[in-house]
C-alpha cells in the first residue's frame, strides 16, 4: 500500500542521507512526534511553515529511509522506520534526540 | 593560538550544524582519522578531491564545532573536539561511526 512512492530498502539506507535529513530541526521534530505518538496522518502535523515546505521535509524524511508514507485514499499516514534505523545505525536515533529527546533541545530548537 | 578562526563554544555547538557536517563521507572520514590517529597536520590529509574542496570540508567541520584548527606558523593542526561533542550529544560520534567505525561503512562510503 505504499503506492509508487520511493522508499529505500533497509540495506540501502545511506548514513549520508539520514544525517542530512536529521540536520533540520523540523524534520527531527516530525521524527520525534512519530516516535512518541506513533503513525501520524500528515494533516495532523502543524508547523509555522508553508505546506509546500512541509511536503518537502516529509519527502526528505521518506527518501532518506527515516519514515514510510502510506497512501490511504486521500490521506497519507507516516511512520518512523525505527527498527530499520536501529538495525542500520544503532544508537543514532537516541543520539540525535529523536527517541531520547534532551530537554534543552526541545526548548532551544538549535 | 587559534588565531582569528571561528570556533563555537561548547554550549553553542548546534545539532543541526553537527549533523550537516557529518552528512558527508569525506568529512566523517576526516573526523574518524583525527579520532584514530590524533591531531593531524592538514597537509597529511589525502583525498582525491580539489584542495579548495578539502578546505571547505575542514571549514564546515571547524565551524560546526566538530574540530579545532590551530595555526602553527605555516601549518594548521586539526583536532577532533571529542569531549565537547560527547558532552553535548552523548553517543553521537559512536552512532555515526566516527569513534566506532562499522566495517561496512569503511568499504561502502555510503
Automatic annotation (TrEMBL), chains A, B:
Keyword Magnesium part of the UniProt annotation: no
Listed InterPro entries: ArsR-like_HTH, HTH_ArsR_DNA-bd_dom, HTH_MetalResp_TranReg, WH-like_DNA-bd_sf, WH_DNA-bd_sf
The HTH arsR-type domain, residue ranges: 17-94
PANTHER family: TRANSCRIPTIONAL REGULATOR, ARSR FAMILY, TRANSCRIPTIONAL REGULATORY PROTEIN
Transmembrane segments: none
Annotated keywords: DNA-binding, Transcription, Transcription regulation
Entry superkingdom: Bacteria
Stretches assigned to coiled coil: none
Protein name per the record: Helix-turn-helix transcriptional regulator
